[in-house]
Design goal:
The complex is a heterodimer of chains A (about 270) and B (about 260).
Chain A: H1 2-12, H2 17-40, H3 46-50, H4 53-86, H5 92-104, H6 107-118, H7 123-132, H8 140-165, H9 168-176, H10 181-210, H11 213-218, H12 229-239, H13 241-267
Helix pairs in contact in A: 2-13, 4-8, 4-10, 5-8, 6-7, 8-10, 9-10, 10-13, 12-13
Chain B: H1 2-16, H2 20-30, E1 44-51, H3 55-68, E2 72-79, H4 81-89, E3 96-98, H5 102-106, E4 115-120, E5 122-127, E6 147-150, H6 155-163, E7 173-175, H7 178-186, E8 192-196, H8 197-202, E9 207-210, E10 220-226, H9 233-244, H10 247-253
Parallel strand pairs in B: 1-2, 1-3, 6-7, 6-8
Antiparallel strand pairs in B: 3-10, 4-10, 5-8, 5-9
The chains are: A mainly alpha (about 270), B alpha/beta (about 260).
Organism (chain B): Catenuloplanes nepalensis
InterPro entries (chain B): ModA, ModA/WtpA
Family (chain B): Belongs to the bacterial solute-binding protein ModA family.
Chain lengths: ~270, ~260
Protein backbone atom coordinates (compact mmCIF):
# COMPACT_ATOMS: atom_id res chain seq x y z
CA UNK A 1 0.00 0.00 0.00
CA UNK A 2 2.69 2.41 1.01
CA UNK A 3 4.74 1.12 -1.88
CA UNK A 4 2.01 2.02 -4.34
CA UNK A 5 1.50 5.47 -2.90
CA UNK A 6 5.20 6.22 -3.00
CA UNK A 7 5.35 5.11 -6.63
CA UNK A 8 2.49 7.38 -7.61
CA UNK A 9 4.09 10.42 -5.98
CA UNK A 10 7.28 9.89 -7.92
CA UNK A 11 5.42 9.57 -11.20
CA UNK A 12 3.42 12.71 -10.70
CA UNK A 13 6.46 14.81 -9.75
CA UNK A 14 7.98 16.91 -12.55
CA UNK A 15 11.74 16.71 -12.59
CA UNK A 16 13.22 20.19 -13.09
CA UNK A 17 15.64 20.37 -16.03
CA UNK A 18 18.21 22.04 -13.79
CA UNK A 19 18.44 18.75 -11.87
CA UNK A 20 17.75 16.30 -14.66
CA UNK A 21 20.46 17.54 -17.05
CA UNK A 22 23.38 17.38 -14.60
CA UNK A 23 22.03 14.09 -13.26
CA UNK A 24 22.05 12.56 -16.74
CA UNK A 25 25.47 14.04 -17.47
CA UNK A 26 26.73 12.51 -14.24
CA UNK A 27 25.29 9.15 -15.23
CA UNK A 28 26.86 9.39 -18.69
CA UNK A 29 30.19 10.31 -17.15
CA UNK A 30 30.14 7.14 -15.05
CA UNK A 31 28.77 4.82 -17.72
CA UNK A 32 30.56 6.04 -20.87
CA UNK A 33 34.06 4.83 -19.87
CA UNK A 34 32.59 1.41 -19.17
CA UNK A 35 30.88 1.51 -22.57
CA UNK A 36 34.26 2.46 -24.06
CA UNK A 37 35.68 -0.83 -22.82
CA UNK A 38 32.83 -2.72 -24.47
CA UNK A 39 33.20 -0.82 -27.76
CA UNK A 40 36.97 -1.25 -28.05
CA UNK A 41 37.04 -4.87 -26.89
CA UNK A 42 38.52 -7.26 -29.46
CA UNK A 43 35.50 -9.57 -29.42
CA UNK A 44 36.89 -11.95 -32.05
CA UNK A 45 39.97 -12.94 -30.08
CA UNK A 46 38.33 -12.58 -26.66
CA UNK A 47 37.90 -16.28 -25.81
CA UNK A 48 41.48 -17.11 -26.80
CA UNK A 49 42.88 -14.22 -24.80
CA UNK A 50 40.83 -15.09 -21.73
CA UNK A 51 42.06 -18.66 -21.85
CA UNK A 52 45.71 -17.60 -21.57
CA UNK A 53 47.24 -19.24 -18.50
CA UNK A 54 48.56 -15.95 -17.15
CA UNK A 55 45.08 -14.39 -17.28
CA UNK A 56 43.53 -17.35 -15.50
CA UNK A 57 46.28 -17.30 -12.88
CA UNK A 58 45.74 -13.61 -12.20
CA UNK A 59 41.96 -14.04 -12.01
CA UNK A 60 42.24 -17.04 -9.71
CA UNK A 61 44.66 -15.18 -7.46
CA UNK A 62 42.43 -12.10 -7.41
CA UNK A 63 39.33 -14.06 -6.43
CA UNK A 64 41.23 -16.06 -3.82
CA UNK A 65 42.98 -13.12 -2.15
CA UNK A 66 39.89 -10.89 -2.20
CA UNK A 67 37.88 -13.66 -0.53
CA UNK A 68 40.50 -14.36 2.15
CA UNK A 69 40.89 -10.61 2.74
CA UNK A 70 37.12 -10.31 3.18
CA UNK A 71 37.11 -13.20 5.67
CA UNK A 72 39.90 -11.49 7.59
CA UNK A 73 37.98 -8.22 7.54
CA UNK A 74 34.85 -9.96 8.86
CA UNK A 75 36.83 -11.54 11.67
CA UNK A 76 38.38 -8.23 12.75
CA UNK A 77 35.87 -5.72 11.45
CA UNK A 78 32.62 -6.93 13.00
CA UNK A 79 33.99 -6.78 16.58
CA UNK A 80 35.57 -3.41 15.80
CA UNK A 81 32.27 -2.06 14.49
CA UNK A 82 30.48 -3.44 17.56
CA UNK A 83 32.99 -1.69 19.80
CA UNK A 84 32.45 1.61 18.01
CA UNK A 85 28.67 1.33 18.01
CA UNK A 86 27.90 -0.18 21.40
CA UNK A 87 30.66 0.76 23.85
CA UNK A 88 31.18 4.25 25.26
CA UNK A 89 34.85 5.00 25.75
CA UNK A 90 37.15 7.97 25.71
CA UNK A 91 38.58 8.81 22.32
CA UNK A 92 35.91 6.91 20.43
CA UNK A 93 35.62 9.68 17.85
CA UNK A 94 39.36 9.57 17.26
CA UNK A 95 39.29 5.80 16.87
CA UNK A 96 36.44 6.08 14.41
CA UNK A 97 38.40 8.65 12.40
CA UNK A 98 41.50 6.44 12.41
CA UNK A 99 39.50 3.44 11.22
CA UNK A 100 38.33 5.37 8.17
CA UNK A 101 41.74 6.80 7.23
CA UNK A 102 42.48 4.08 4.61
CA UNK A 103 39.31 5.20 2.81
CA UNK A 104 40.90 8.51 1.85
CA UNK A 105 44.56 7.56 1.99
CA UNK A 106 46.13 7.06 -1.45
CA UNK A 107 46.60 3.27 -1.72
CA UNK A 108 50.28 3.70 -2.64
CA UNK A 109 50.80 5.48 0.67
CA UNK A 110 49.09 2.54 2.36
CA UNK A 111 51.54 0.24 0.58
CA UNK A 112 54.53 2.25 1.73
CA UNK A 113 53.20 2.29 5.29
CA UNK A 114 52.68 -1.47 5.21
CA UNK A 115 56.21 -1.92 3.89
CA UNK A 116 57.63 0.15 6.74
CA UNK A 117 55.82 -1.98 9.31
CA UNK A 118 55.68 -5.46 7.77
CA UNK A 119 58.68 -5.22 5.43
CA UNK A 120 61.94 -7.04 6.11
CA UNK A 121 63.27 -4.01 7.97
CA UNK A 122 59.88 -3.01 9.39
CA UNK A 123 59.01 -2.85 13.07
CA UNK A 124 56.85 -5.96 13.00
CA UNK A 125 58.38 -7.49 9.86
CA UNK A 126 61.88 -7.58 11.32
CA UNK A 127 60.63 -9.53 14.33
CA UNK A 128 58.54 -11.89 12.17
CA UNK A 129 61.59 -12.55 10.02
CA UNK A 130 63.98 -13.21 12.90
CA UNK A 131 61.62 -15.15 15.16
CA UNK A 132 59.69 -17.19 12.61
CA UNK A 133 61.46 -16.68 9.29
CA UNK A 134 58.28 -15.16 7.88
CA UNK A 135 58.51 -12.34 5.37
CA UNK A 136 55.29 -10.88 4.01
CA UNK A 137 56.33 -8.73 1.01
CA UNK A 138 56.32 -10.60 -2.31
CA UNK A 139 53.99 -13.29 -0.93
CA UNK A 140 50.32 -14.03 -1.51
CA UNK A 141 49.80 -13.33 2.21
CA UNK A 142 51.19 -9.87 1.53
CA UNK A 143 48.56 -9.34 -1.15
CA UNK A 144 45.84 -10.36 1.30
CA UNK A 145 47.24 -7.95 3.88
CA UNK A 146 47.34 -5.04 1.41
CA UNK A 147 43.79 -5.76 0.28
CA UNK A 148 42.48 -6.11 3.83
CA UNK A 149 44.09 -2.81 4.80
CA UNK A 150 42.21 -0.82 2.18
CA UNK A 151 38.97 -2.83 2.39
CA UNK A 152 38.47 -3.11 6.17
CA UNK A 153 37.01 0.41 6.63
CA UNK A 154 34.23 -0.40 4.15
CA UNK A 155 33.13 -3.31 6.30
CA UNK A 156 33.45 -1.46 9.60
CA UNK A 157 31.43 1.51 8.38
CA UNK A 158 28.67 -0.68 6.93
CA UNK A 159 28.38 -2.85 10.05
CA UNK A 160 28.58 0.09 12.46
CA UNK A 161 25.80 1.81 10.54
CA UNK A 162 23.69 -1.33 10.73
CA UNK A 163 24.34 -1.65 14.47
CA UNK A 164 23.33 1.95 15.10
CA UNK A 165 20.20 1.46 13.03
CA UNK A 166 19.26 -1.77 14.86
CA UNK A 167 16.89 -1.55 17.78
CA UNK A 168 18.97 -1.89 20.95
CA UNK A 169 15.86 -2.88 22.95
CA UNK A 170 16.11 -6.45 21.66
CA UNK A 171 19.57 -6.68 23.17
CA UNK A 172 18.34 -5.12 26.42
CA UNK A 173 15.46 -7.58 26.54
CA UNK A 174 17.85 -10.48 26.04
CA UNK A 175 20.04 -9.14 28.82
CA UNK A 176 17.13 -8.80 31.25
CA UNK A 177 16.17 -12.38 30.44
CA UNK A 178 19.58 -13.45 31.67
CA UNK A 179 21.64 -13.69 28.49
CA UNK A 180 25.32 -12.80 28.82
CA UNK A 181 26.96 -10.26 26.52
CA UNK A 182 28.43 -12.94 24.28
CA UNK A 183 25.15 -14.83 23.97
CA UNK A 184 23.34 -11.56 23.29
CA UNK A 185 25.88 -10.73 20.61
CA UNK A 186 25.72 -14.10 18.85
CA UNK A 187 22.01 -14.80 19.25
CA UNK A 188 20.45 -11.35 19.01
CA UNK A 189 22.81 -8.72 17.62
CA UNK A 190 24.39 -10.73 14.81
CA UNK A 191 21.11 -11.99 13.25
CA UNK A 192 19.70 -8.46 13.61
CA UNK A 193 22.49 -6.86 11.58
CA UNK A 194 23.19 -9.79 9.23
CA UNK A 195 22.03 -7.89 6.13
CA UNK A 196 24.33 -5.00 7.05
CA UNK A 197 27.25 -7.36 7.53
CA UNK A 198 26.53 -9.02 4.20
CA UNK A 199 26.37 -5.65 2.44
CA UNK A 200 29.61 -4.58 4.08
CA UNK A 201 31.28 -7.84 3.08
CA UNK A 202 30.27 -7.36 -0.55
CA UNK A 203 31.66 -3.81 -0.64
CA UNK A 204 34.78 -5.01 1.13
CA UNK A 205 35.24 -7.85 -1.36
CA UNK A 206 34.74 -5.57 -4.37
CA UNK A 207 37.25 -3.08 -2.98
CA UNK A 208 39.78 -5.84 -2.31
CA UNK A 209 39.31 -7.19 -5.85
CA UNK A 210 40.17 -3.82 -7.38
CA UNK A 211 43.13 -3.05 -5.12
CA UNK A 212 46.21 -1.93 -7.05
CA UNK A 213 48.40 0.68 -5.38
CA UNK A 214 49.00 -0.94 -2.02
CA UNK A 215 49.44 -4.36 -3.63
CA UNK A 216 52.13 -3.39 -6.13
CA UNK A 217 53.96 -1.33 -3.51
CA UNK A 218 53.84 -3.85 -0.70
CA UNK A 219 53.51 -7.24 -2.37
CA UNK A 220 55.25 -6.60 -5.71
CA UNK A 221 54.30 -8.24 -8.96
CA UNK A 222 54.97 -11.89 -9.72
CA UNK A 223 52.68 -14.00 -11.92
CA UNK A 224 50.80 -16.65 -9.96
CA UNK A 225 51.94 -15.39 -6.57
CA UNK A 226 51.28 -11.67 -6.26
CA UNK A 227 50.09 -10.58 -9.69
CA UNK A 228 46.37 -9.86 -9.26
CA UNK A 229 44.07 -8.75 -12.06
CA UNK A 230 44.60 -4.98 -11.65
CA UNK A 231 48.38 -5.48 -11.80
CA UNK A 232 48.02 -7.70 -14.86
CA UNK A 233 45.92 -4.98 -16.50
CA UNK A 234 48.56 -2.36 -15.81
CA UNK A 235 51.40 -4.47 -17.21
CA UNK A 236 49.36 -5.57 -20.19
CA UNK A 237 49.00 -1.90 -21.07
CA UNK A 238 52.78 -1.78 -21.45
CA UNK A 239 52.67 -4.57 -24.00
CA UNK A 240 49.45 -4.28 -25.94
CA UNK A 241 46.33 -2.26 -25.34
CA UNK A 242 43.93 -4.98 -26.47
CA UNK A 243 45.16 -7.34 -23.78
CA UNK A 244 44.60 -4.65 -21.18
CA UNK A 245 41.08 -4.06 -22.49
CA UNK A 246 40.28 -7.76 -22.30
CA UNK A 247 41.49 -7.99 -18.71
CA UNK A 248 39.67 -4.81 -17.72
CA UNK A 249 36.48 -6.12 -19.25
CA UNK A 250 36.77 -9.35 -17.30
CA UNK A 251 37.28 -7.48 -14.03
CA UNK A 252 34.35 -5.21 -14.84
CA UNK A 253 32.04 -8.14 -15.55
CA UNK A 254 33.02 -9.91 -12.32
CA UNK A 255 32.53 -6.75 -10.23
CA UNK A 256 29.20 -5.78 -11.78
CA UNK A 257 27.84 -9.32 -11.55
CA UNK A 258 28.69 -9.62 -7.88
CA UNK A 259 27.44 -6.15 -6.99
CA UNK A 260 24.19 -6.56 -8.94
CA UNK A 261 23.43 -10.02 -7.61
CA UNK A 262 24.27 -9.33 -3.99
CA UNK A 263 23.12 -5.74 -3.64
CA UNK A 264 19.59 -6.52 -4.71
CA UNK A 265 19.33 -9.31 -2.21
CA UNK A 266 20.92 -7.70 0.81
CA UNK A 267 21.39 -3.98 0.46
CA UNK A 268 17.99 -3.60 -1.16
CA UNK A 269 16.31 -5.52 1.66
CA UNK A 270 18.11 -3.66 4.42
CA UNK B 1 47.79 6.34 -11.86
CA UNK B 2 50.76 8.67 -11.55
CA UNK B 3 51.15 8.62 -15.31
CA UNK B 4 47.50 9.34 -15.93
CA UNK B 5 47.80 12.37 -13.68
CA UNK B 6 50.84 13.55 -15.59
CA UNK B 7 49.00 13.23 -18.87
CA UNK B 8 46.01 15.09 -17.45
CA UNK B 9 48.34 17.84 -16.24
CA UNK B 10 49.98 18.02 -19.66
CA UNK B 11 46.61 18.34 -21.36
CA UNK B 12 45.58 21.15 -19.00
CA UNK B 13 48.84 22.96 -19.58
CA UNK B 14 48.53 22.64 -23.33
CA UNK B 15 44.96 23.89 -23.25
CA UNK B 16 46.11 26.86 -21.21
CA UNK B 17 48.87 27.71 -23.66
CA UNK B 18 46.72 27.30 -26.76
CA UNK B 19 47.63 30.76 -28.01
CA UNK B 20 51.35 30.41 -27.53
CA UNK B 21 51.90 29.50 -31.18
CA UNK B 22 51.04 33.05 -32.25
CA UNK B 23 53.48 34.62 -29.83
CA UNK B 24 56.36 32.43 -30.91
CA UNK B 25 57.89 34.68 -33.60
CA UNK B 26 57.58 37.76 -31.40
CA UNK B 27 59.21 36.06 -28.44
CA UNK B 28 61.93 34.65 -30.69
CA UNK B 29 62.72 38.02 -32.18
CA UNK B 30 62.55 39.94 -28.92
CA UNK B 31 64.80 37.72 -26.87
CA UNK B 32 68.50 38.37 -27.20
CA UNK B 33 69.66 34.95 -26.03
CA UNK B 34 70.51 32.74 -28.98
CA UNK B 35 68.93 29.29 -28.87
CA UNK B 36 71.04 26.15 -28.67
CA UNK B 37 70.25 25.36 -32.28
CA UNK B 38 71.95 28.58 -33.21
CA UNK B 39 68.73 30.21 -34.36
CA UNK B 40 65.89 31.87 -32.49
CA UNK B 41 65.18 31.21 -28.82
CA UNK B 42 62.75 28.45 -28.04
CA UNK B 43 59.37 29.29 -26.58
CA UNK B 44 55.95 27.94 -25.74
CA UNK B 45 54.86 24.79 -24.01
CA UNK B 46 56.91 21.67 -24.70
CA UNK B 47 55.81 18.22 -23.58
CA UNK B 48 58.46 15.54 -23.34
CA UNK B 49 57.62 11.88 -22.73
CA UNK B 50 60.72 10.11 -21.47
CA UNK B 51 61.74 6.74 -20.03
CA UNK B 52 61.84 6.70 -16.21
CA UNK B 53 65.58 6.06 -16.32
CA UNK B 54 66.12 9.50 -17.88
CA UNK B 55 64.41 11.34 -15.01
CA UNK B 56 67.42 12.94 -13.30
CA UNK B 57 69.31 13.79 -16.51
CA UNK B 58 66.33 15.22 -18.37
CA UNK B 59 65.27 17.27 -15.34
CA UNK B 60 68.69 18.90 -15.39
CA UNK B 61 68.72 19.34 -19.15
CA UNK B 62 65.24 20.84 -18.96
CA UNK B 63 66.33 23.32 -16.30
CA UNK B 64 69.37 24.36 -18.35
CA UNK B 65 67.31 24.82 -21.46
CA UNK B 66 64.59 26.79 -19.68
CA UNK B 67 67.23 29.03 -18.11
CA UNK B 68 68.46 29.89 -21.60
CA UNK B 69 64.97 30.25 -23.04
CA UNK B 70 62.82 32.13 -20.51
CA UNK B 71 59.62 31.77 -22.52
CA UNK B 72 60.00 28.00 -22.85
CA UNK B 73 58.04 25.76 -20.48
CA UNK B 74 58.88 22.08 -20.49
CA UNK B 75 56.62 19.43 -18.96
CA UNK B 76 58.10 15.97 -18.50
CA UNK B 77 56.09 12.79 -18.33
CA UNK B 78 58.35 10.00 -17.06
CA UNK B 79 57.37 6.36 -16.93
CA UNK B 80 57.93 2.89 -18.35
CA UNK B 81 58.73 3.41 -22.05
CA UNK B 82 56.08 1.01 -23.28
CA UNK B 83 53.38 2.68 -21.21
CA UNK B 84 54.41 6.06 -22.58
CA UNK B 85 54.26 4.65 -26.11
CA UNK B 86 50.73 3.41 -25.43
CA UNK B 87 49.74 6.84 -24.12
CA UNK B 88 51.12 8.51 -27.27
CA UNK B 89 49.34 6.00 -29.50
CA UNK B 90 46.11 6.68 -27.60
CA UNK B 91 46.40 10.38 -28.39
CA UNK B 92 48.26 11.90 -25.45
CA UNK B 93 49.68 15.23 -26.64
CA UNK B 94 53.48 14.97 -26.79
CA UNK B 95 56.22 16.77 -28.70
CA UNK B 96 59.21 14.60 -27.94
CA UNK B 97 59.48 10.93 -27.03
CA UNK B 98 62.68 9.44 -25.60
CA UNK B 99 62.42 5.67 -25.08
CA UNK B 100 64.70 3.17 -23.41
CA UNK B 101 64.62 0.75 -26.35
CA UNK B 102 64.27 0.90 -30.13
CA UNK B 103 61.56 -1.78 -29.97
CA UNK B 104 59.38 0.57 -27.94
CA UNK B 105 60.01 3.36 -30.39
CA UNK B 106 58.88 1.11 -33.24
CA UNK B 107 55.52 0.63 -31.53
CA UNK B 108 54.70 4.34 -31.73
CA UNK B 109 52.40 4.82 -34.68
CA UNK B 110 52.95 8.43 -35.79
CA UNK B 111 56.60 8.92 -34.98
CA UNK B 112 59.16 11.00 -36.87
CA UNK B 113 62.74 9.90 -37.45
CA UNK B 114 64.22 8.57 -34.22
CA UNK B 115 67.95 8.76 -33.50
CA UNK B 116 69.88 6.90 -30.83
CA UNK B 117 71.26 9.52 -28.43
CA UNK B 118 72.65 7.43 -25.55
CA UNK B 119 73.20 3.85 -24.46
CA UNK B 120 72.69 2.28 -21.07
CA UNK B 121 73.99 -0.87 -19.46
CA UNK B 122 72.68 -3.00 -16.63
CA UNK B 123 74.36 -3.35 -13.24
CA UNK B 124 73.38 -5.26 -10.13
CA UNK B 125 72.10 -2.83 -7.52
CA UNK B 126 72.88 -4.04 -4.00
CA UNK B 127 72.66 -2.54 -0.53
CA UNK B 128 75.42 -0.08 0.38
CA UNK B 129 78.66 -1.96 1.11
CA UNK B 130 77.35 -5.10 -0.63
CA UNK B 131 76.66 -7.07 2.60
CA UNK B 132 75.68 -10.25 0.73
CA UNK B 133 78.93 -10.24 -1.27
CA UNK B 134 77.32 -10.33 -4.70
CA UNK B 135 80.05 -10.35 -7.33
CA UNK B 136 78.23 -11.34 -10.49
CA UNK B 137 75.12 -12.72 -12.12
CA UNK B 138 75.76 -16.28 -10.94
CA UNK B 139 75.50 -15.11 -7.33
CA UNK B 140 71.95 -13.94 -7.93
CA UNK B 141 70.85 -17.56 -8.28
CA UNK B 142 71.79 -18.23 -4.62
CA UNK B 143 68.59 -19.52 -3.05
CA UNK B 144 68.73 -17.30 0.05
CA UNK B 145 68.82 -14.11 -2.02
CA UNK B 146 65.78 -12.08 -2.96
CA UNK B 147 66.06 -10.46 -6.38
CA UNK B 148 63.84 -7.92 -8.12
CA UNK B 149 63.75 -7.60 -11.91
CA UNK B 150 61.79 -5.42 -14.28
CA UNK B 151 58.88 -7.09 -16.04
CA UNK B 152 59.72 -8.33 -19.54
CA UNK B 153 57.17 -5.89 -20.97
CA UNK B 154 59.43 -2.91 -20.18
CA UNK B 155 62.89 -2.38 -21.72
CA UNK B 156 64.91 -2.91 -18.52
CA UNK B 157 63.15 -6.26 -18.14
CA UNK B 158 63.83 -7.22 -21.73
CA UNK B 159 67.52 -6.37 -21.24
CA UNK B 160 67.62 -8.30 -17.97
CA UNK B 161 66.16 -11.36 -19.66
CA UNK B 162 68.81 -11.17 -22.35
CA UNK B 163 71.63 -10.76 -19.85
CA UNK B 164 70.31 -13.57 -17.66
CA UNK B 165 70.18 -16.18 -20.42
CA UNK B 166 71.60 -19.32 -18.86
CA UNK B 167 71.23 -18.18 -15.24
CA UNK B 168 68.52 -20.05 -13.34
CA UNK B 169 67.00 -17.20 -11.38
CA UNK B 170 63.58 -16.84 -9.83
CA UNK B 171 62.96 -13.22 -8.87
CA UNK B 172 60.51 -12.35 -6.11
CA UNK B 173 58.94 -9.56 -8.11
CA UNK B 174 58.77 -8.23 -11.67
CA UNK B 175 58.49 -4.48 -11.31
CA UNK B 176 56.69 -2.18 -13.73
CA UNK B 177 59.70 0.08 -14.24
CA UNK B 178 63.35 0.32 -13.31
CA UNK B 179 62.69 2.77 -10.48
CA UNK B 180 60.32 0.27 -8.91
CA UNK B 181 63.03 -2.39 -8.92
CA UNK B 182 65.59 0.03 -7.51
CA UNK B 183 63.34 1.22 -4.68
CA UNK B 184 62.88 -2.36 -3.50
CA UNK B 185 66.67 -2.47 -2.97
CA UNK B 186 66.72 0.98 -1.36
CA UNK B 187 64.03 -0.14 1.09
CA UNK B 188 65.95 -3.32 1.86
CA UNK B 189 63.11 -5.59 0.75
CA UNK B 190 65.27 -7.34 -1.82
CA UNK B 191 69.00 -8.08 -1.78
CA UNK B 192 69.64 -7.21 -5.40
CA UNK B 193 67.98 -5.87 -8.52
CA UNK B 194 69.05 -5.56 -12.12
CA UNK B 195 68.85 -1.86 -12.92
CA UNK B 196 70.55 0.54 -15.30
CA UNK B 197 73.98 1.78 -14.36
CA UNK B 198 72.56 5.29 -14.41
CA UNK B 199 69.89 4.44 -11.85
CA UNK B 200 72.41 2.86 -9.51
CA UNK B 201 74.57 5.95 -9.89
CA UNK B 202 71.66 8.30 -9.19
CA UNK B 203 70.95 6.37 -5.98
CA UNK B 204 74.61 6.06 -5.00
CA UNK B 205 73.92 7.20 -1.44
CA UNK B 206 71.71 4.13 -0.84
CA UNK B 207 72.98 1.43 -3.19
CA UNK B 208 76.14 0.14 -4.82
CA UNK B 209 76.24 -0.95 -8.43
CA UNK B 210 78.01 -4.20 -9.23
CA UNK B 211 79.17 -4.41 -12.85
CA UNK B 212 78.96 -7.76 -14.64
CA UNK B 213 80.38 -8.75 -18.03
CA UNK B 214 77.14 -10.21 -19.42
CA UNK B 215 75.60 -6.73 -19.45
CA UNK B 216 77.72 -5.90 -22.51
CA UNK B 217 75.51 -8.27 -24.50
CA UNK B 218 72.35 -6.48 -23.42
CA UNK B 219 72.99 -2.82 -23.98
CA UNK B 220 69.93 -0.65 -24.40
CA UNK B 221 69.93 1.98 -27.12
CA UNK B 222 67.86 5.05 -26.28
CA UNK B 223 66.18 6.61 -29.31
CA UNK B 224 64.69 10.11 -29.24
CA UNK B 225 62.24 11.58 -31.70
CA UNK B 226 60.24 14.70 -32.52
CA UNK B 227 56.77 13.24 -32.96
CA UNK B 228 55.06 13.78 -36.32
CA UNK B 229 52.11 15.69 -34.91
CA UNK B 230 54.05 17.58 -32.23
CA UNK B 231 52.06 20.63 -31.10
CA UNK B 232 55.31 22.61 -30.74
CA UNK B 233 57.64 21.15 -33.36
CA UNK B 234 60.10 24.08 -33.28
CA UNK B 235 60.82 23.76 -29.58
CA UNK B 236 60.86 19.98 -29.93
CA UNK B 237 63.61 20.17 -32.58
CA UNK B 238 65.56 22.52 -30.33
CA UNK B 239 65.20 20.19 -27.36
CA UNK B 240 66.42 17.12 -29.28
CA UNK B 241 69.31 19.12 -30.72
CA UNK B 242 70.32 20.30 -27.25
CA UNK B 243 70.09 16.78 -25.79
CA UNK B 244 72.43 15.49 -28.52
CA UNK B 245 75.02 18.24 -28.07
CA UNK B 246 75.45 20.02 -24.74
CA UNK B 247 72.98 17.75 -22.93
CA UNK B 248 75.23 14.80 -23.68
CA UNK B 249 77.62 15.98 -20.96
CA UNK B 250 74.85 15.74 -18.38
CA UNK B 251 73.89 12.32 -19.68
CA UNK B 252 77.42 10.90 -19.63
CA UNK B 253 77.97 12.30 -16.14
CA UNK B 254 74.88 10.34 -15.10
CA UNK B 255 76.47 7.14 -16.42
CA UNK B 256 75.06 6.91 -19.92
CA UNK B 257 77.39 6.11 -22.80
CA UNK B 258 77.51 8.21 -25.94
CA UNK B 259 76.26 6.24 -28.96
Amino acid sequence: MTERRRGRVIRRQRVPAALLVPALLGLAFLVLPLAGLLIRAPWGTLPARLAEPQVLAALRLSLLTATIATALCLLLGVPLAWLLARVEFRGRRLVRALVTVPLVLPPVVGGVALLLVFGRRGIVGQWLDQAFGITLPFTTAGVVLAEAFVALPFLVIAVEGALRGADARFEEAAATLGAGRWTTFTHVTLPLVAPGIAAGAVLCWARALGEFGATITFAGNFPGRTQTMPLAVYLALERDVEAAIVLSLLLLVVSVTILAALRDRWVGAA
Amino acid sequence: MRRTMAVAAAILLLAGCGGSGDEEPAAGGGSGAPGPAGGDALSGQLTVFAAASLTESFDRIGQDLQARNPSLFITFNYGGSSGLATQINEGAPADVFAAASPATMTSVVDKGEPVVFVRNQLVIAVAKGNPKGIAGLADLARPELKVALCAEEVPCGAAAKKALAGVALTPVTLEQDVKGALSKVTLGEVDAALVYRTDAKAAASDVDGVEFPESAGAINDYPIVVLTDAPNAAAAEGFVEYVRTEGLTVLTEAGFQAP
